[in-house]
């Protein structure tokens, strides 16, 4: 539940983390737009999707940021006192779920796109991953907004089913496709799956806090910080790694392109 009162320190913590996410998503998207010509065209779809993901996240975090500022106010001089919930305004948690509903399936599209597999293989993977990702978010939302721990636990359990299926596809089915990738990117792509697992693992921990009888302002602040850090890892950091993979694959596919992009020492090392 949203707390009635936040201390000055709690308010500043949430405020600064929301600001950090906005900057991370926005300028990652700017970097990727500028860097797009530095990979071969066949890999630009993955980076274009990454730009869209970061743009969507930046937009929604602007909305979350504005909602947070409107929801908590103080009469203290210099804003140094406690912040209480404003009359007639509330903090909208729904913005996060709208963001996740759009971006989580696209994160999986990024990963599949950068592999540049045969079209039939790509389509088969996406038909499995995208609906499961959307279903995972849709099932989690009723529990997030419910004040009933039983209902929260039920929908949390239901949303775990598509989550487990996504992990199965990523770590079992996708492993077969990794064998077809250049040696230089296999390890990165394998670690990328663990980054998704790590960052996505923060969400259920924050989701389960009320079920563990961890509540109050500190728990709510912890949840906001956890969601913010997870979104930076799962979108901005993830996008930069996808870009790195696209660069390596571009160099492996086209030595002439590699010579134009790399320093002489790097070209000599690759030779």
Automatic annotation (TrEMBL):
Gene3D superfamilies: Rhodopsin 7-helix transmembrane proteins. Its main location: membrane. InterPro entries: Arc/bac/fun_rhodopsins (IPR001425), Rhodopsin_retinal_BS (IPR018229). It is a multi-pass membrane protein. PANTHER family: BACTERIORHODOPSIN _OPSIN, NOPA (EUROFUNG) (PTHR28286:SF2), PTHR28286. It is found in: Membrane. This is Xanthorhodopsin. Pfam families: Bac_rhodopsin (PF01036). The chain crosses the membrane at residues 14-36, 43-62, 100-118, 125-142, 154-174, 194-212, 224-243. The keyword Transmembrane applies. Belongs to the archaeal/bacterial/fungal opsin family. It comes from Cryobacterium algoricola.
């Amino acid at each position: 539940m949203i707390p009635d009162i936040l201390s000055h320190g709690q308010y500043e913590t949430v405020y600064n983390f929301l600001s950090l996410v906005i900057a991370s998503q926005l300028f990652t998207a700017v970097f990727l737009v500028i860097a797009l010509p530095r990979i071969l065209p066949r890999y630009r779809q993955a980076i274009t999707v990454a730009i869209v993901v970061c743009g969507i996240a930046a937009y929604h975090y602007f909305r979350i940021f504005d909602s947070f500022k409107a929801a908590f106010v103080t009469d203290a001089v210099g804003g140094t006192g406690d912040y209480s919930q404003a009359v007639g305004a509330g903090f909208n948690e729904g913005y996060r779920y709208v963001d996740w509903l759009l971006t989580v399936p696209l994160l999986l599209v990024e990963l599949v796109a950068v592999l540049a597999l045969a079209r039939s293989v790509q389509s088969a993977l996406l038909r499995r991953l995208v609906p499961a990702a959307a279903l995972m978010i849709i099932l989690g939302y009723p529990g997030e907004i419910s004040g009933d721990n039983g209902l929260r636990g039920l929908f949390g359990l239901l949303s775990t089913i598509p989550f487990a299926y996504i992990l199965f596809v990523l770590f079992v089915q996708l492993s077969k496709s990794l064998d077809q990738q250049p040696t230089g990117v296999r390890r990165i792509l394998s670690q990328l799956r663990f980054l998704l697992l790590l960052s996505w693992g923060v969400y259920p921990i924050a989701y389960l806090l009320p079920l563990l009888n961890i509540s109050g302002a500190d728990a709510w602040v912890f949840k906001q910080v956890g969601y913010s850090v997870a979104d930076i890892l799962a979108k901005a950091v993830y996008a930069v790694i996808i870009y790195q993979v696209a660069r390596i694959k571009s160099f492996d596919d086209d030595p002439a392109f590699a010579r134009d992009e790399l320093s002489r020492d790097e070209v000599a090392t690759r030779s």
